[in-house]
Structures are given as structure tokens and as C-alpha cells.
Design goal:
The protein is about 0% helix and about 55% strand. It is mainly beta and about 190 residues long. The chain folds into three domains: about 60 residues, SH3 type barrels (Roll); about 60 residues, Nucleic acid-binding proteins (OB fold (Dihydrolipoamide Acetyltransferase, E2P), Beta Barrel); about 55 residues, Nucleic acid-binding proteins (OB fold (Dihydrolipoamide Acetyltransferase, E2P), Beta Barrel), CATH 2.40.50. The strands form three sheets. It has a six-stranded antiparallel β-sheet with strand order 1-6-2-3-4-5, with no helix packed on it. The protein has a five-stranded antiparallel β-sheet with strand order 9-8-7-10-11, with no helix packed on it.
Amino acid sequence: MIPASDLRKGMVLQIDGILYRVMNTQYNNPGRGAASMRAQLMDIRTDQTQYRVFSAEENLNNIFVESENVKFLYNDGDLLHFMNVDTYDQYEVNIGLFGDDVGYLKEDMDLQLRTFDGSKVIDYVLPTTISYKVAEAEMAVVGNTAGAVLKRIKTDTGLSVQVPNFINEGDMIKVDTRDGSYVSRG
């Protein structure tokens, strides 16, 4: 049990027998009155999200989840396929769990899956930076050099990233998975 004031993104809660993943939190302390925590929760079974407001002192049932090191194998439309690197167990995960982060996945990529009850995948942890090959890049505009000049590119996985003007098609770049920003060449 944890107080609602300690809720963080990625935690898993059990409320009324249903498992929820905390997607986002917002702490509110109005000065007068009681503090509260507003949380966006995703129902792990149905992938539907909802907002709930908890009193800061309210105790919630925090569920322990296990982390497993896996490799991303392939995407077959609605399902993503992963393999545990230690036991060679394979997991099929609904693409809805990853949402917009599915663009960061590439074949043979190492990441972590978080499981509940040994088999139900409920969360993931991407590496902080990942290297991608630039598949499409806009042409640099001559004379447009006032300030930081950026252009939009597409990676080999379909991810769209703002990069400096000197990046060309075929270059390798590193992208920060936390916010989708360009980090460096590489």
C-alpha cells in the first residue's frame, strides 16, 4: 500500500480487482483544503484510459511487477512479438500497449517488458537512446542559416524526428526515446 501522493508514471495499481497502469499524474495542493493527486489510469485488460482523483493521504494497492530483458522480434499488424533473452520464452503483446512508442521499435532491439503473474505483459521500458538510419530527409534550404535550422526526417522505422540541417538520407542518428528528440549522429 502506498499513499496517493507517491503515485508515479509506470506504477501498477489494483483498484476494485482491476489492474491499472498509471500513465500520468498531477499533484494539486490548493493551500486551503486537502491536497489531491489526479491520475490518468489505463485499464490493462481493455487498454481504455480514465482519470481519477485521489486524496493525497488515500492508500492505494501498488502491485509488484517483474522485469524481463527481451528482444523485439517483429510486428505482424495488431501484435508485437518479443523473446526473453534468458529463457527464450516468447510474448505476444497488443500494439495498443505501446501506443505512439511503437515507432521506436526495431528488429533485434533490446528492451524490458514488465509482467504480472509471470505471463501478462503490462508495461515496457525502452532504452534511453536508440540509433536509426535516416530513410527520408528534406533538402536543406540554402541561405536559411539564422538560428538553429531544423528539418523533419523519417527513420527506417517510420519515426518522424526534427534534426539539424546537415543530416542527410542514409545517415545514422541517435534519438532520445523519452521525448523523441535528436541527440547526435551515430
